[in-house]
Structure formats: C-alpha cells, structure tokens
C-alpha cells in the first residue's frame, strides 16, 4: 500500500508539476518573444515571409481584421501546405484535425463531468473521442512515413523529430487503451473518473492510480514540459508578430521608429572586422552612413 501511494504521489507530482512548468515556461517565453528587438523576429520566419520580398514596404498595409482572418484560416486549414505540397497536406491535416477535435473533446469531458448526470451519458462521447484519436493517429503515422521515405522532406527534418512522432503515436495509443481497456469504453465510468480528478473528490484514488490512465497522464506530462520549447510555440509567436508587425514600415513618428531608436542606443558587445566595439549602434550607423569604410579594420 505504501509503495502504491509513493508511485501515485510521483505521478501526481509529475503531472501537476508539468502543468505548472508549462504555464510558467509559456509565460516566460512569451514575454521574451514579445519584448525581443524588432529585427529578431526575422528568426521566426524560416520560409514564407513578406520580408523576403524586396519591395514589401511599398505594398499597402492590410488591416488587423484581414490579417487575423488569414491567420485563422492558415491555422484551421493549413493553407500553405495545401498549396505548396498537397500530398503532404493530407496526412498533416488529418493529424491536426484530429488534434483540434481531441482538444474540444477534452474540454467537453471536463465540463460535462461536473455539469451533467453522468449516469445517463450516451456513447456519442465515446464515438467522438475514438474518431478524433484515430484520425490523429492515421495522420501522425502518415507524416512519419512520408518523412522517412521522402528524400525532399528529410532535408528539413532533424533526427529528434522522428522520436517526437513516435512518442505522439504512443500517446494516442495510450489514450485509446486507457479509455477502451481500463474504462471499457463506458462514458459514465470515464466521466466519473474525470469528475474525481477535477474536483479532488477522492484523493485516495489519486494516490492509487490505475496503470493505463497513469501511463497516459505521464505521456501528457512529458508533452506539457516539451511544448514551451517546441517549434509549435515558435509558430504561435510567428503569428503574433504577423498580426502586430508584418507590413508595418518604419515611418517617421511611428511606434516602429520609436523602438528602433531605443535599440540603436544599446552598446555593441561584440567585435568583428567591420564593427568597432565600445560604441552604440547609433554611433556606428551614423559613421557608416557618412563614411562607408568606417568601422572596418
């Protein structure tokens, strides 16, 4: 009994610790991205940036509503992949559609567990969750296979990402096993378990978790720790910068000019043949403008 409590306590610590870590790390990284110098957000764009166009500043600026609508469609339908690589888009969209449905399903689980009579819950919830999981699994498997066999995709895919997709498949399998084996595909049983977890109604039960739910919770905890440092988070802030800064030229009196002037007053902390240390960027820029050869050695 004591060993079970220790193991259950470890699972609780990892899971709830993962939630806290995810929130703190996300806020920290968000603040870092939001306060980064304007020129640094170029690093968020590996491809498909308006800044790749030499005449981007001559184009009319799109209003916020239009950019937000474009961002929403990109996230919902992955339009760039549809137009640029249709064959890869099919498994990619299946995976993301499955994830979107799973996210909504989990929200429904949490709300329904504390608001409805769980004894009368129908099997519709089970169909929803199973379909979403299978859709995400088929998409993830397709992505992994294409990444392995397609030589063009391999170029842009570091080895660690193969491990990531295998772990995604294991997480999805773990969720299905927990629902269909441990809870026997019973929505009332699953909702009762979720209610206990959300309301802490049976803390003793939390300290003695069943094997399959505990394994799935540990998989989820790993993702909570990984996500703030993943490319997914970078993509999110790419859209943040897209909404706030894309197509915003540096005009007199603008916020962009104000921020640029602030950064120009920062001291140079490194040296190179074309850069002299000990000055501010404004001084170097002024010297270079008046004398293109200034600062070189």
Would you summarize the structure shown here?
Helices cover 69% and strands 0% of the residues. It contains 13 helices and no strands.
Given the structure, what is the number of helices? 13
Structural class: mainly alpha
Order of helices and strands: HHHHHHHHHHHHH
Shape: elongated
The percent range for strand residues is under 5%
What about the largest sheet?
A: none
Low-pLDDT sequence parts: none
Query: Number of DSSP strands?
Result: 0
**Radius of gyration, rounded?**
25 Å
Q: How many structural units, i.e. domains?
A: 3
Summed over residues and divided by their number, the pLDDT gives a mean of 82
What does this structure look like?
This protein has 13 helices and no strands. The model has no long low-confidence stretch (mean pLDDT 82). It is mainly α and 297 residues long. It has helices at 2-34, 64-77, 79-84, 86-115, 124-149, 151-154, 159-182, 187-199, 203-206, 211-226, 231-244, 255-264, 281-290. It folds into three domains: 1-60 and 227-253, no CATH class; 62-208, no CATH class; 265-290, no CATH class. It is elongated. Helix 1 (2-34) packs parallel to helix 11 (231-244). The chain starts with a helix and ends in a 7-residue tail after the last helix.
């Amino acid at each position: 009994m004591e060993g079970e409590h220790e193991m259950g306590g470890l699972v609780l610590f990892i899971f709830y610790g993962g939630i806290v870590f995810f929130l703190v790390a996300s806020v920290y990284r968000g603040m870092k991205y939001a306060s980064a110098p304007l020129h640094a957000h170029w690093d968020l764009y590996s491809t498909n940036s308006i800044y790749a166009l030499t005449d981007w500043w001559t184009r009319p600026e799109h209003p916020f509503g239009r950019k937000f609508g474009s961002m929403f469609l990109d996230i919902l339908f992955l339009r760039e992949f549809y137009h640029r690589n249709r064959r890869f888009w099919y498994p990619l969209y299946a995976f993301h559609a499955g994830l979107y449905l799973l996210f909504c399903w989990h929200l429904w689980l949490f709300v329904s567990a504390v608001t409805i009579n769980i004894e009368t819950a129908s099997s519709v919830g089970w169909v929803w969750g199973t379909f979403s999981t299978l859709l995400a699994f088929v998409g993830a498997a397709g992505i992994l296979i294409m990444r392995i066999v397609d030589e063009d995709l391999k170029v842009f895919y570091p080895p660690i990402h193969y491990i990531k997709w295998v772990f995604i498949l294991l997480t999805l399998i773990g969720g299905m096993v927990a629902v269909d084996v441990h809870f026997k595909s019973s929505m009332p049983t699953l909702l009762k378990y979720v209610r206990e977890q959300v309301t802490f109604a049976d803390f003793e039960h939390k300290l003695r978790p069943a094997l399959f739910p505990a394994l799935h919770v540990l998989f989820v905890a790993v993702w909570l720790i990984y996500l703030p440092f993943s490319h997914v988070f970078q993509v999110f802030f790419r859209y943040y910068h897209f909404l706030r800064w894309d197509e915003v030229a540096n005009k007199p009196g603008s916020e962009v000019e104000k921020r640029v002037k602030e950064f120009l007053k920062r001291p140079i902390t490194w040296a190179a043949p074309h850069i002299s240390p000990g000055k501010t960027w404004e001084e170097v820029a002024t010297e270079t403008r008046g004398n293109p050869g200034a600062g070189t050695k």
